Amino acid sequence: MDEVSLVTFRTFPTLEPYGWRDRPVSDGTQPARVLRHDGSTLTAVCADGVQTLRSVPTLEPQPTVGDWLDIEQGTGRIRAVLERSGLLTREAAHKQGSQVLAANVDVVLITCGVDRPIKAGRIQRVATMAWDAGAVPVIVVTKAGTGELDLPRLELEHPGVLVLVTSALEGSGLDAVRDLVAGRTAVLIGESGAGKSTLTNALLGREDAETGRVRASDNKGRHTTTSRQLHLLPDLPDGRGGGLIIDTPGIRSVGLVADAESVTASFAEIGELASSCRFHDCRHAGEPGCAVAAALDDGSLDADRYRDWQRLQREALSAARRADVHAYRSHVKQFSRAAKEGQTRKRGGR
What we know:
By secondary structure, the protein is an alpha/beta fold. It has helices spanning 120-132, 151-157, 174-181, 196-204, 260-265, 268-274, 291-298, 303-323, 325-348, and strands spanning 7-10, 23-26, 29-38, 41-46, 49-54, 68-72, 78-81, 87-91, 98-103, 107-113, 136-142, 162-165, 185-190, 229-232, 244-247. 29% of the residues lie in helices and 23% in strands. The protein has a six-stranded mixed sheet with strand order 12-11-10-13-15-14, sandwiched between helices. Helix 8 packs across helix 9 (325-348). The longest helix is centred in the last third of the chain and has 24 residues, at 325-348. The chain is globular, with a radius of gyration of 23 Å.
């Protein structure tokens, strides 16, 4: 008879501030949460404190920051990655697959420095990534007072998404962020120089995350933060746990890896209209009885928002096709065949 590993629900009080909730753990093992990932090693916190663990190349899925691991007591050998509540991903450089950013995240803080243009398209993409990961997107404007901010317009461009305005230098807006993150795991996503590490240090109350200077010529920063790192925030005055925040390196582009439903979640008004369309499979591209088209005609739906929604839907479909190699190759073949047939008809019509 094969030996069966006993799996039980166990309590680890020292890990509760890191988000541990009773869940199944194998006999002879203990849970650990990944704080940092550096090549072949992981820094993780377990019931005994912080440990350095060696990555296991054959482990599937590969661990990332925010993951909970099942590790052997004594040896620290990683046995498994525990079930994830969500996974924040983006399209990798050169559209070669996807890049994992963080796991088990509750809130995605879309960090935008007011000292540079705040790009609606970037916010929409990151918000879509957040919904796809089962997290809530929140816009955090940093460096308040160092540039012009049209707050009503920003809120109008992103209906349903909370906007917080902060200044780490002045200490303003930090309590709102602390209250939001309390008891949760949040991740900061934004460009280099957007103030993610400075905000992290302000929330921690100490200089823990390395910060860098921003060029005065274009307000761009260099990649000071080179690795994603999870930080435990101090408890709040009312006794609530401060939660956790993941500081990340700046990202220049936000390639989308998400499904159509996650895109629509970022455009809540379009999703609400779509529920009133005559046909449940309406594509909102001229079909009869389309509530989205009617809203465009009477001006109640902003045309730019509709075009942004269409663009992200196309990006999501394209990313899905690339992820499914078979479907992508089939799509390319169909497109090539159609193009050749079009050229043949064109020559025949001369």
